[in-house]
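Lab manual, section 2.4: Encoding a predicted structure.

Procedure: take the sequence of the chain (266 residues), apply the prediction step described in section 2.3, and record the output as structure tokens. A sample record is shown.
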Amino acid sequence: MIKADLHIHSTVSDGSDTIEQIIDAARKRRLDVIAITDHDTLSHIAQIPPDTDMKVIGGVEISAIHRKTNTRTHILGYNIQKPMIVTSLTQPLLEARNKNSEKQVECLLKAGFRIETEKLARADGKYLYKQHIMDWLVTSGQVPDMFGSFFQKTFKRGGICDFDIEYIDVFEAIKTIKEAGGFAVLAHPGQQQNFWLIPELVAAGLGGLELNHHTHNNKDREIIRDYALKYGLFLTGGSDYHGKYEPQIFGIGDFLAEESGVLAIC
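Recorded output:
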């Protein structure tokens, strides 16, 4: 059996580990294949070392939304043959997210927090995420933890930093991945409880569903398998690893792709 973790994030987006650190961790777990699926970018493809002793795939996770219902719907893209087609869609989103995060920093500065903006970590050395802001606040001792009460009352629930960007239309995301020669996969549908969208997404060109994910319970997996069987979809899986930038106890290799997903993608 091929051991493949097909959902990992690096410092090129909102992960805290470099690609080299991720590969080292995957090697220690004796994985055969990993996929770096950074948010809304494929620039990590050029940063993957060419001489690894395992297969390292460059994928993407597009931050999308079903506009009619305002439902968050993330789409994973694999085997992208024409990266520039995807980049033309996602680049404006990267820039919008950075502008949004810069505005959040301004709000925090006005509220009296000490932030040295030039020293903040940035995705791919360019784009600021709220995780980078929170990491600074924790490291500088101004808040106790990354995802505790401060985060919830500041970045959620009507807090001073509770504003966001407009995400990519989910059908446009799938269409673009297909045009770029890739496979489109619905990421963690159990987490976002968007199972009901699957028939529409299949009609738009969806090829697979992410089955194994740390937020999925047995009922979620049962529903996903039923949809996969009904629509002839392959099944993937992965740790959705972000390092210290996500409140999760699971690591690289703790959730793996099903055989159908490995055969389709790898």
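Check your result against the sample. The domain at 4-89+170-265 is CATH 3.20.20.140 (TIM Barrel).
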